Amino acid sequence: MEGKLIERLEAAVARLEALSAGGISARGLPDGSVEVASDPSIVAFDDLMAQYVARVSGAAEKIGGQVLDVTKILLEAFSVQKKLLIEIKQTQKPDMAGLAEFLKPLNEVIMKANAMAEGRRSDFYNHLKSAGDSLSALAWIAYTGKDCGMSMPIAHVEDGWQMAEFYNNKVLVEYRNKDPNHVEWAKALKELYLPGLRDYVKSHYPLGPVWSASGKKASSAPSKAPPPGAPAPPPPPPACLFSSEPSQPSSSHPKQGMAAVFQEINTGNVTAGLKKVTTDMKTKNRTDRTGVVSALEKETRSSSSSFSKAGPPKLELQMGRKWVVENQIGRKNLVIDDCDAKQSVYVFGCKDSVLQIQGKVNNITIDKCTKMGVVFQDVVAACEIVNCNGVEVQCQGSAPTISVDNTSGCQLYLSKDSLGASITTAKSSEINVLVPAAGSDGDWGEHSLPQQYIHVFKDGQFETTPVSHSGGETWRGSE
């Protein structure tokens, strides 16, 4: 048994070395790369890949299919990061534009992984999202200082994994009693980042990568002006993970809705943007309008009325105190990152979306949402779930109170700091609470909250006890 295990480990290490060498030689190493490759930080990165990435790869090979494909991309991303770490030791620190060009190979691999989760939803969607989102942790290499708009490298790795943990937990829950290979893959993926990559960054790059003072200069992206008479270039693609422009928090976006209206009124020039209506523009004088309403116009009017009934999507801070997230459909990357303990979050009418609240807030309310996922850090007062259907809520910090009212289907994920939360349910069904296991193996213990009760009149009052099912725990209470 031990001999087979050693053979498998040796084979995995050989594959990693071959792929890593292939990825490095693909672009060519600068002079002196052999000496740099023996640097302690590079050797430690090889050990990280041999210990943690090989474990993820081994579990993926047993599963096959798309899980193996996305794991190969993950291996490619780590190989590219090793190549960049070697080049950093021989390259002078570039400007922001040069840094974006320098990190372009890593960004392309990460975008390739994220593309696998787009389009038609796969049976392994949670695997693809978990692996793709986790690669954002590799962006720690772009940290250039406290003014770069990023968290410190160690914190960035932890935040990057939190983006993926929501989907990784889904894999653990779905396959824990079905297929141990999927469970092993999910556990190995988590340990790759926590503690694997986090401890590596903490030991070698706690303040970010160290560029060479006397090395070569990083090349910037060449800018070519179009020749005279040439058509205008196409619009730029979506911003990449390593953009040369610093990211802005949600609160710095232009005001929308009624806040924008009041801002326009306060300027004193309210009628500046209005156009004058001429005689031929009046309805009674227009020849292109008749009293007959076509079927196409009826359909257009009905569709516009249905849109106005649901309302436009919103993600904004109102009056500086309340975050409003409304009518978001199919959005998996909603983030509120600039919040404080005096603000509340109200989520309404969202469907098939995921919202991350990165920070402590006062109160969270989730109202009339379907297939909605919410991940939050800490809440001061309570997290309320009302009139929802098939929602998943994960608390990564502390929450004193969680209430579920008139909801069908709710999965609550509690952290170790939130196990003392008071959970109140009313007119709800299919409420499951998942708590971390006592050990550190990443397992979750699932507990279903009772929804049926027996009332017995005894000693002058009614005693109420939950209905106990075979194989489950008995919950007892009184009213």
Automatic annotation (TrEMBL):
- The UniProt regions of compositional bias labelled Low complexity, in chain numbering, are 213-223, 243-254
Task: Report the GO molecular function annotations.
Answer: actin binding; adenylate cyclase binding
Every C-CAP/cofactor C-like domain range: 312-449
- Region (Disordered), start-end ranges: 213-256
Q: SUPFAM superfamilies, per this entry?
A: C-terminal domain of adenylylcyclase associated protein (SSF69340), N-terminal domain of adenylylcyclase associated protein, CAP (SSF101278)
Task: Write out the biased-composition intervals (Pro residues).
Answer: 224-239
Q: Which Pfam families match?
A: CAP_C, CAP_N, CAP_N-CM
Q: Name one GO biological process term.
A: cAMP-mediated signaling
The entry's cellular-component GO terms read: cytoplasm
Family, per the entry?
Answer: Belongs to the CAP family.
Q: What is the name attached to this protein's record?
A: Adenylyl cyclase-associated protein
Tell me the organism. Durio zibethinus
Name of the encoding gene:
LOC111308866
